[in-house]
Amino acid sequence: MGEYTLITGATGFVGSAVARVLQQRGHRIRLMVRAGADLSNLEGLDFERVTGDLTAPDSFAAALENCRYLFHVAADYRLWVPDPAVMMRANVEGTRRLMLAAQAAGVEKIVYCSSVAALGLTKDASPANETTPITEHDVIGVYKRSKYRAEQEVLKLVRENGLPAVIVNPSTPVGPRDIKPTPTGQMIVDVASGRMPAYVDSGLNIVHVDDVAEGHALALERGTIGEKYILGGENYMLGDLFSLIGEVACVRPPRIKLRQSWLQPVAVVSEWMARGFGVEPRVTRETLAMSRKKMYFTSLKAQEQLGYAPRPARDAVADAITWFREHGRIRTR
């Protein structure tokens, strides 16, 4: 039986939190890291490093050698990509090949980090769960389609190949070590810095990144093969979340609520500039289309079956603001 627990994506926001939780539980961790990756999120961890990449399947066998468990957290997470095929190759085909390599290596159990982006939404905006119906036609955006397809590939391998995988679906994590930052983290920085005068309202589920990491560990320890578990927190309208951020950061939150239709021309111009100059757009037509849907979810299944217990969203926001301030990301005017 293998002695290592392999984690992909451990240099990132969620992956580094997962690595910390597993090390605290006594796992001997091995991290598959891309060449030249920023390792600052791994400070204080004791780990074995192997070089690998989701787009380089030849690197998987060496990473998985002598591993008992696999946590696949890595993903190409961008809301804008000039070439969707690049993201699909990493998130879908890379995931499928990694799952097959893990099974060939004799890995005992796999926790695959999917996303609520791969799940269905209710028509009445009530919280969705793991069984809310969805088809690929319902999925908006390249990233969400890639996560939907990747999850379907994992489920297919469970059914047809006996892949020993459990799936977790985090909602919108916030908290410390959001080094990029994620789109949600950037929103927190902008609001807490007084740099967001207006917004387009939407609905989302906010969860502390460390609770998501704890949920990953619980999925390994208590999760059923082939099952999905939403790892979420509290549902918020975006305007209410901004009010919470303003209260915690002691700044005035944005008050002007815009209609999606007003920003369509801005999105078109932003995408044109992104293609022409290689800069990431702050708003796209896909993000506007996504904002029309309330991404509300319930984590009741994970709470009842795994013992998952997320803390209040206020704590997640407060920890995120503290970390961003300590690292010079928030400068209130």
UniProtKB/TrEMBL annotation:
Membrane-spanning segments: none
Pfam family, one: Epimerase
Gene3D superfamilies registered for this protein in UniProt: NAD(P)-binding Rossmann-like Domain
InterPro entries: Epimerase_deHydtase, Hopanoid-assoc_sugar_epimerase, NAD(P)-bd_dom_sf, NAD(P)-dependent_oxidoreduct
Recorded superkingdom: Bacteria
Residue span(s) of domain NAD-dependent epimerase/dehydratase: 6-232
Organism of origin: Swaminathania salitolerans
Any GO CC annotation of this UniProt entry: cytoplasm
UniProt-recorded Gene Ontology molecular function terms: aldehyde dehydrogenase (NAD+) activity
Name under which the protein is recorded: NAD-dependent dehydratase
